[in-house]
Amino acid sequence: MSIFNPVLFKGKVALVTGGATGIGRAITQELLTLGCTVVIASRKEDRLREAVQELCPNGSQLRAKVCNIRKEDQVKNLVVSTLRELGRIDHLVNNGGGQFPSPVAHMNLKGWNAVVETNLTGTFLMCKEVYDQWMKDNGGVIVNIIADMFRGLPMMAHTGAARAGVDNLTKSLAVEWAADGVRINCVAPGSSIYSPTAAANYGDDSIFERGRAGIPAKRLGTPQEVASAVCFLLSPGASYISGETLKVDGGGSLYSYLMFEIPEHKKLPAYTWTYKPPEDDDEEPPKSKL
Ligand code: ADE
After folding, report:
1. Separation between Cα atoms, residue 208 and residue 123, nearest integer Å
2. What is the pTM of this model?
3. Local structure of 230: helix, strand or coil
């Protein structure tokens, strides 16, 4: 069940990276419900096959394509073959991404680069290719899925930095591509959106329960609630919104959703100094150099 008009996206084509699992799968499902034809892209063929089987067993409204968004030639082929088969790309949802939890102290350059290449460079490649091959001449709408990294993202610094990059890229493209009829926005799911894929990524379910206490909504969020925000931004209802980022977090970013517990320590003592007044009180105070 969707809250939107069931023919909202009839006749439209959407390309959703990472569309087979977690939040991406909920987005795919919502788009299908609203009449859209959807192409999901992922590196993993088995995930794609399973998603098609579950979401659209006859396969007519849902296509699956293997693509590593880090590879420019694969991204090109994905867009070429989508346009050859379906003739248009109205919507691009850049949801494909990945990271591993780690403090920066234990990250190496290879791990850092892998996460930045997937989340930032992969999104850049997808936007650029869809724009070059279709949206430059036909317009369209792009939604980039980022994360609630606005106050830093301890234990996930690589993806926080990459997603902040996507947030800023989105604003630049909203200006550069407006004259071509392209709108582009971000959706930032809070860390409190629960999906089995996210839980597997953290390797720990309890992290979600710990954070729940500080969320004004007093509950975890669902991938479907992220999908609603994405479909709103893709829809004509958002026709005057571009370069914006919509948080879907139950108000958690306003208050205190703490994923990372700061250990007790005394390593940042206050700076202590004592002021000694001059012995002769009539003495002129030194003039500030500023
Ligand atoms: N999802 C996570 N990593 C991905 C990648 N490199 N390509 C496509 N989808 C992905």
Report:
1. 27
2. 0.91
3. helix
